[in-house]
Amino acid sequence: MERERYTTDLTDEQWAQVHSVLPGARNGRGGRPRRWPVRAVWDALFYQARNGCSRRNLPHDLPPWNVVWGSFRRWRANGTLAQVHEALRASVRRHAGKAPQPTAAILGSQAVRTAGKRGAVRATTRAKA
Length: 129
What we know:
This protein is mainly alpha-helical. The chain has four helices and no strands. This is Transposase.
């Protein structure tokens, strides 16, 4: 039985873009078959990001929080999230009629003055008796 879709779920077109960038599920090394489809894990990540819930409060029809968190950590560490972000950014730029890579950047700075005192912090007024 298929679950009801959430508004945060990836469309088939969006999933095709994400899936095209993902490395092979197990890179041919064997191992235990997946219990949860990779797309369901991505849907859970987007649900959590959009709704701001904690990992442990994901709805019961999404993969368990530890599967989602473990996948996120692994993808963050091995660069998969950066690759997906890069591919989606380039796609959005092409769709907007721009070059896939930005050609200029704008950098700004804000000066904040800090107290120039050094050493121990001392009270400036005496305590009243």
